[in-house]
Write a structure and sequence with these properties.
It is a single chain. The protein is an alpha+beta fold and 405 residues long. The protein is built from 16 helices and six strands. Strands 1, 2, 3, 4, 5 and 6 form a six-stranded mixed sheet that branches. Helix 13 crosses helix 14.
Length: 405
């Protein structure tokens, strides 16, 4: 009979004693491995017994039919990963186990008295080959479980982040849980930043988080609803400076919320950041702060009313032939931007002051209202702003800007 197999069959009868020896040596040499949070003493004893038994069965070629010889190793790797026990500590315990098995085989050989020690070289090689195979199975199971848990953690964090954006943090219990899970201050001030999600997964996502972290700013960035959303903890930081830092990382349209006071306001802040983003035309690499674009945001939020405003107020102008329509719209816009100054508007349009006066007279006639009246001027200004809203909000788009010769 093969020497390794003969010795193994005798050693396996001492399984309980070997288990005790292995547990004692792990406690002595790898004490940090045994912890109520990682591995209890009872669990350690069961695991040691199961793994020694399988190693001996593999050495003696006596693994029961239909049993995976590495099942104990896989279970150990999986459970230790689930408990977040360090892999190095797990593998160290397996090396100690190999030593205990080898010492027991050597002791049986010594007691036999007929075995040549030169023959034990092959036994030693067989022991460490099996121990290495079991250790590899432990490591594979550990890393596979670690990856699964990491994905679960990421999914949990993403779900929690999504719930923050949906306003769930108005529940103080959830806010506290989210703050702990995401490492965020529950009562601090935040900005919510929204940008378009690029084909490659999001512009400057990792860079933005890293840049802010270098500046001592905690932030979280996640894809959400075809956009990239950042939650930035302001603490004592100046929002203007942070946005300057971000602009270098996110070269695209960016919508920025007002300050959110605590996680409970993050849901509303997210809605407002999305609204700010929608005021920017596609391809316009600019930062839109909601508080700087409130009139446009009002119109974007009510696209049907914006359409109605354009039709009711500017309809007569929009129905003119292309050239005339463009000239009058350009003049009306320049006249409003220059605080109703014909001379200043003429300078913008590269035309004579009288041309502006004549065109404005025609505009007033077509619109049926005097633009010297504050209410009328305000209404027309909003109608022009609605006309200039980005595509996709239900409003009628103007032709290309008019450039008089």
């Amino acid at each position: 009979m093969d020497l390794t197999r003969r010795l193994t069959q005798q050693v396996i009868l001492r399984l309980d004693a070997l288990t005790d020896d292995l547990v004692d040596e792990i406690l002595d040499e790898n004490a940090g491995y045994v912890d109520a949070e990682l591995v209890s003493l009872d669990e350690l004893r069961r695991s040691c017994r199961d793994n020694i038994e399988r190693v001996l069965q593999m050495l003696g070629d006596i693994v029961p039919a239909g049993v995976d010889p590495l099942d104990a190793a896989v279970v150990t790797g999986t459970r230790r990963a689930e408990r977040r026990a360090p892999l190095e500590a797990v593998l160290r315990s397996f090396r100690i186990g190999g030593r205990v098995v080898w010492r027991s085989l050597a002791q049986v050989a010594k007691e036999d008295g007929t075995i040549c020690w030169d023959d034990m070289v092959d036994v030693a090689a067989a022991v460490w080959t099996v121990v290495d195979e079991a250790s590899s199975a432990v490591a594979r199971a550990y890393r596979r479980t670690e990856l699964r848990l990491r994905r679960l953690d990421e999914h949990r964090r993403l779900t929690m982040f999504t719930d923050l954006l949906r306003g769930r943090a108005r529940d103080t219990a959830f806010a506290a849980e989210a703050a702990a899970e995401l490492d965020l201050p529950p009562g601090g001030e935040y900005l919510v930043i929204v940008t378009d999600l690029a084909q490659d997964g999001g512009p400057g996502l990792a860079t933005a988080e890293d840049l802010l972290a270098v500046n001592g700013v905690r932030s979280i960035w996640q894809p959400h609803a075809r956009q990239t959303v950042g939650l930035v903890a302001l603490a004592t930081h100046d929002p203007d400076r942070l946005l300057d830092v971000l602009h270098a990382a996110i070269r695209d349209r960016v919508g920025v919320s007002p300050r959110a006071h605590g996680l409970g306001e993050v849901g509303t802040a997210h809605e407002l950041a999305v609204l700010a983003l929608r005021t920017l035309p596609a391809g316009d690499a600019a930062i839109a702060r909601l508080d700087d674009r409130l009139p446009a945001a009002l119109l974007v939020r009510s696209p049907d009313l914006a359409d109605r405003l354009v039709d009711v107020v500017l309809g007569p102008l929009l129905r003119l032939p292309d050239g005339e329509r463009q000239a009058l719209l350009a003049t009306l816009s320049a006249w409003l931007r220059t605080n109703r100054s014909p001379a200043a508007a003429a300078e913008l349009l590269y035309c004579h002051r009288n041309t502006v006066i004549n065109r404005m007279a025609k505009v007033e006639s077509l619109l049926g209202r005097s633009l010297e009246d504050f209410e009328s001027t305000l209404t027309v200004s909003y109608a022009l702003k609605a006309l200039d809203l980005p595509d996709g909000h239900g409003t009628r788009k103007p032709d290309p800007p008019y450039h008089p010769s």
